[in-house]
TrEMBL record:
The chain crosses the membrane at residues 50-68, 88-108, 120-141, 147-169, 181-202, 214-237, 287-306, 326-346, 353-374, 380-400, 412-433, 445-465. Residues 54-473 form the Major facilitator superfamily (MFS) profile domain. It is found in: Membrane. Keywords: Membrane, Transmembrane, Transmembrane helix, Transport. This is Major facilitator superfamily (MFS) profile domain-containing protein. It holds the Pfam family MFS_1.
């Protein structure tokens, strides 16, 4: 191999001769680690330990963040709309939109802090902060107060999802990631579905303590968030390279060593590297991370569109408040097995693009049925397709990017950028789902359809690029991601 050839994805100097040689030496060393049946069994036990400690608590905390972010919709159909005069102009859309302003700008700074402070401290701090904010939303008196609530909520929620993705991706091999993110997200979806039922029960507290029912949605869910934040402080685990340094290890030294050997052999970036301004600039100059960010944005347009406006669309079909809550929960529950099945086969087949494109096409059909079908039953079936497609696409989009970049600092920056563009998708949805078109939202549905078509085209383009680069690497013309033997995932 000619080491002087330029490597692809040289985000922080990994393509120079010395670092490539180090990567090759490291790979050779890991290949010497015997993987007999007993070692494989031991490794499976280690991964299961990580699964149990990492996924449930992060999933629960992210689940409550999703509920806290979207409970404004549940409060709306429970009476907040009239009490705070959100029925005037585009006030409700403005409140939704402004959340994403602060959400966008604090993604990357949060991931830069995460490594310094530690996942348990930082993620639990964020959860406690937005929990207090949501609790306070139960006592606001004017629609403008909700603007301040949404801005603060965006600030504190901004760093949570990219932090979780960065932490999860650091613990698993490349083709173990999507299943774990799917399970992490499935917990969120389960809570979101039952969050509507919880909201229905909380509305029945109307008048208790002198508060309207919609206020109790914010108060109780804010308290739940604060409790989970405290649990997170004690349960969230550190990055694997820091685990034994902090005195809170749940794995032995031998188990960490075995895990390290597998991760080094898989991608060669077990040890963390410091995030510097140069690395930040180099990562942001990589056009591929912007495509992955746009894919996440397009997925978010659909997921936020359904999250914020599905209940209004369903209520507009002629159902009462109780029926609307129940009918809103069902499509979310159905999307859970879809997400898990897609995650399993995507990891098993070691491909991402076909699943991302497939879910996007499902979303196109869903949007079209909701927008243009006449019978309510057909429109409601379209909701199932749209929700299932958009929610199952999230783990696939995240895993696809994670598979195709190397380096801890690069992952931290790229995952934050990707999730930040989810905020752009939220703004897009908030603007295109116009209040004056409620409850049909034809413009928003058309706009959502366009984003799903873009996802399909982007998948085709990126797959072609990855195929070309992999062929060049096989001919010895380039070194991908500064590591001999590394190949892009299609």
């Amino acid at each position: 191999m000619a080491f002087e050839k330029t490597s692809q994805g040289d985000s922080d100097g990994m393509g120079d001769i010395e670092q490539v040689e180090k990567a090759q030496i490291g790979l050779a060393e890991e290949e010497d680690v015997p993987m007999d049946a007993e070692t494989k069994k031991k490794l499976r036990r280690i991964v299961l330990k990580v699964d149990i400690r990492l996924i449930p608590i992060l999933g629960a905390m992210y689940a409550i963040s999703g509920i806290d972010r979207s409970n404004i919709t549940a409060a709306r159909i429970a009476g907040m709309h009239e009490d705070l005069r959100f029925d005037i102009g585009n006030r409700f859309s403005i409140a939704l939109l402004l959340f994403f302003v602060t959400y966008f700008f604090f993604e990357i700074p949060s991931n830069m802090i995460l490594r310094r402070v530690g996942p348990a401290r930082w993620l639990s701090f964020l959860a406690m902060s937005w929990g207090v904010v949501i609790l306070g939303a139960g006592f606001i008196q004017k629609w403008t107060d909700m603007i301040a609530i949404r801005l603060l909520l965006g600030t504190f929620e901004a760093g949570f999802l990219p932090g979780c993705i960065y932490l999860i991706s650091s613990w698993y091999e490349r083709y173990q990631i999507q299943q774990r993110i799917a399970w992490f997200y499935a917990i969120n979806l389960t809570a979101s579905a039952f969050g509507n039922l919880l909201a229905l029960g909380l509305v029945e507290m109307e008048g208790l303590g002198g508060l309207e029912g919609w206020r109790w949605i914010f108060v109780i869910e804010g308290i739940i968030t604060c409790v989970l934040a405290i649990l997170g402080f004690f349960l969230v685990i550190d990055f694997p390279d820091n685990l034994l340094k902090k005195g809170r290890a749940f794995l032995t030294h031998d188990e960490v060593a075995l895990l390290k050997s597998r991760l080094e052999r898989d991608r060669g970036d077990f040890e963390a590297d410091e995030i510097t301004m140069r690395k930040l600039f180099n990562t942001l100059c990589r056009w591929q991370v912007w495509i992955y960010a746009l894919l996440f944005m397009c997925m978010s347009v659909a997921s936020y569109g359904y999250s914020y406006f599905m209940s209004v669309i369903i209520q507009g079909m002629g159902y009462n408040v109780t029926q609307t809550y129940l009918l809103t929960a069902a499509p979310i529950l159905v999307s859970i097995p879809i997400s898990l099945i897609v995650g399993y086969f995507s990891d098993r087949l070691q491909v991402r693009a076909p699943f991302v494109a497939g879910m996007a096409l499902t979303g196109v059909v869903g949007f079209a049925l909701v927008a243009f079908a006449q019978p309510n039953g057909v429109r409601y079936f379209g909701v199932y397709l749209g929700v299932g497609g958009s929610y199952a696409a999230l783990p696939a989009c995240v895993a696809w990017q994670s598979n195709n970049i190397r380096g801890q600092s690069t992952k931290a920056i790229a995952s934050a950028l990707q999730v930040a563009f989810g905020a752009v998708g939220g703004v897009y949805a908030s603007v295109t789902f116009m209040e004056k078109e409620s409850p049909t939202y034809v413009t928003g549905l058309w706009a959502g359809m366009a984003t799903q078509i873009f996802m399909v085209l982007a998948c085709i383009g990126m797959t072609w690029f990855h195929w070309v680069q992999n062929k060049k690497a096989e001919r010895g013309e380039i070194i991908i991601e500064g590591r001999e033997g590394f190949r892009y995932t299609y």
